[in-house]
Amino acid sequence: MNSRFRYKSAEEALQIIQSGNRVFIQGNAATPIYLLNKLAERTNELLDVELVMLGVFGDIELTKPEYSKSFRINSLFISEVVRRAVNENRADYIPVFLSEIPELFKWNILPLDVAIVHVSSPDKHGFCSLGVSVDIARSAVDSAKHVIAQVNPQMPRTHGDGMMHISSFDSLVLVDEALPEVNYGFKTSETEMKIGAYIADLIEDGSTLQMGIGSIPDAVLQSLGNHKNLGVHTEMFSDGIIPLIENGVINNKLKKKHPGKVVAGFCLGSRKLYDYVDDNPMFAFLDIDYVNDVSVIKRNPKVVAINSAIEIDITGQVCSDSIGTYQFSGVGGQMDFMRGATLSEKGKPMLALPSRTGKGIPRIVSFLNQGAGVVTTRANVHYVVTEFGVAYLFGKNLRQRAKALISIAHPDDRENLEKNCFERFGV
Asked: pTM (2 decimals)?
């Protein structure tokens, strides 16, 4: 570490935060856990500090009930860490497209008093990186009145929009700690592998991939070993792309936007992944208002957008963010990429989900649960994939959609769906 940079203690740096401030917290694997837990120590000094965050990870004290009077979380996407707080009304959720979040900062809809980010060590020129989570963090840094950086030698130095000079930060706190890790691959079930195989069959050579989070996208990647010349332009990725890059399946050479590079807003996975992207010029971590811009996405050929859902009704309405009124996740970038894939030449927007939950609850339903949020409208849905096959809905009327979706529902659910379909549509 270069000694010419002046570092402060966490206590000194965090003293700038006052009651009533709005504070941005970088998320995903770049969550500044150390500084957040140090901030929790000021709970008796502060009131009504608003914490704006996107998908934070790690063991964070501030999500516990005893801190709710001092700190109010206002989440732009709900990860497991804040899910309980949101549903117990100790935290809030803002439904917003991922591509539009930077505008909330830039247009002072959510003006930021302070931003807390997590960066790599500065190089000899004084430049460091926002690391594995550039997404909305760059615009937050550019918009906030005061910026605190947790400088961590274990944070990968990534190429792209996250590269910033140390002078961009008002306070520096040196912390050497491991990043949060997530492993989706080991959870992949037989059902998910069947879904992955169906999707892989629909992916043409030369396609550009967007994958959501979870074991189904990983199952798709595991099924692509015989494909050629694939590219990646996605809001996020995990470990599953590494073998395909090493085997030459993903080479990005046919992309029209950023050929030769994997473009993303953030990555989340194992330490192996973080080491793989470290100082790797194949990866471009860019601002999310660019990565998820429909006009950018559609310029790549054969964009395949692979996203998940909690449930889908027989007309094609997709709920991806709630279980009834229980807020589970968020809007995220699903619609950004579903629309981008639709407008791409030979693009394929896909929704993938097991036909039932692990508890046996149907996920293809006659009607969405009361209070469920529609993230993707029926007009935007083309392909729906379960372990029982593929339903193609584009250009189909409501009756035809119902028939197609019932055919890929769990066999034990089809009789009831057919009955409800007859009552509704007369067929």
From this structure: 0.94
